[in-house]
Fold this sequence. Notes:
Elements lengths: L1 H16 L1 H35 L2 E3 L1 E23 L6 E6 L6 E2 L4 E5 L2 H133 L17 H132 L1 E3 L4 E6 L6 E2 L5 E16 L11 E6 L7 E8 L10 E8 L11 E18 L4 E2 L5 E8 L5 E7 L1 E5 L3 E5 L8 E3 L7 H9 L3
Antiparallel strand pairs: 1-19, 2-9, 2-13, 3-5, 3-8, 4-7, 5-6, 7-9, 9-12, 10-11, 10-13, 11-12, 13-18, 14-15, 15-16, 17-18
Helix pairs in contact: 2-5, 3-4
Amino acid sequence: MAEKKKPVASVLKWIKKHKKLLIVVVLLVIGVFVIRNKIQEQQKKVAELLQSQIKTTTVERRSLLSYVSTTGKVESIESRDITSSLTGYDINDVYVEVGDLVEEGDLLLSFDTSDILDDISDVNTDISNANRQNQIAVEQAQRSYDAARTSNEEQADSMNDTITDAKKKLDEAMEDKLVYEKQRMADEAYVTAALEAWNSVKSDYENMKLEYENLTAEVTKKQTELADANSVLKMAQMELDEYRVDNEDEFDPTTGKIYDEASRTAYRKDKAVKEAQESANYFQAEYEKANMKLNELKDEYADATAVYNQLQADYEAAVSAWTASENQLDAMRDQIETLEDAYEDALDNQITQERNNRNSLLTSEDQIELQRLSGTTSVRTLEDKLSAYERNLKKTDVKAPFSGTITDVKVNSGDTYTTGTLLVLQDCSELIIATEVDEYDISSIKEGMRAVIKTDATRDDELEGKVSFLAPTPTQGDSVTYRVEITLDQQDERLRLGMTAKTNIVLEDRENVLTVPYDAVLSDSEGKSYITLMEQAEDGTTAQRDVYVTVGTEGDYYVEISSEEDLEGKEILIPNAGGNALEDMMSLMMGE
Length: 592
């Protein structure tokens, strides 16, 4: 028994020893149980909170309207600011007041006509004066034209005389040229004949002349040789005579021979004399023969020279005559060229003069026509002015262009009208709604679209209408808007001009289509639209499943959807309907 108590004692002893540690452990265990219970309570509260914060709805069929909302004014179907072009004229009477009902053609007001009647009288006088002035100016222009025409005819006659005279001189010169050409041809033939005659004797004459000159030279040569031979003979004789004188004793007085034949000198000298004598005799005979022949040729040469010189003189005279006729022909050519130039100049001058005369006449004709046109224009201007005054006279009575109500009168009797509105006339039998639509929405609106209108005067009653007009250009202002007019399907007597009208222009009207709230449609990262279905699992819990959809017409709160899956009647999640559920859960978890 004692052995069994020993372990117990040991435990007690250990507990006592570790009392603090044991207390900490116990406290920790208790804390764990407390925290666990607290967490379970918090989780239950979070689940209850989430269940209360999740909002769902059902996919249902309904009608959707897509529209553009604007605020406009009630206006009349036709409104006219009555004005007049009679600026500067006094108003005689005003026959209507604000609120008066008038019929088309009723007299509204009238202008004083006295000034217009005075203007008409003055213009009639001006027209009469202008017509007379125009007549005088046209007559003056006609006289100028007639004078120019007479002058042109005289100039034409003078120019024709000048051309005729120039042509006559040219023709006469051409005839003279033919005469000179014939003379030149005769002179040229004469030159040719003289040249041929001269050339026919020229060769024989030149041969004879050469022969005569050669023979003359030969005679001269023979004469020179004879003189030289006689000179040699004379010298030899002189030497011989001198030798004889010096050697007289050696000569035989009777024979004249040298006694001493052996004397060589005497022999040579004697021989030289003999040879010289023989040579002199030979040259004497040759000279006489040549001289005789020269004398025979001399007369024949003289006759040939006379003939040659005569033919040469004839040829030179023929050449001189040909040169003179050629010079005369050249002078005649120059004269003809000058006369041709004069004739051509006369023709050119005639063409130029005729052109200038035509232009002058055309200018005169134009002056007549311009004067007529100017006069007609000035008269027409006055007539237009007269017509304007007459039209103004008709405008002095201002009448209603259509039936309606006078809504404003801006002038009084006795006022001088300058410009601007005289009075305002509006057709209040049919009212329209005029509004402004901004540039973002105007392209979606078409004529004939349905419109729903509400006004304070008609309370909750909705008026129906249709778009009847779209302005092609924007209304001037700070923002870009376009005027849109809506014609009411039925007029309402409660409407008045200038009332504010709230208008919804229906862009689309979809009947019996599947719809969900805007907030139920989400987009994924690729921009595809989807909704989240809330489906019951087999274990009774609610599961979520995303389904891709195609978005169609958009209304105020709902949007049309379509999908390959049948979604009608199914419950879907509205993700943004939880409000501040996350903040509430964080507060619960933090113990707040």
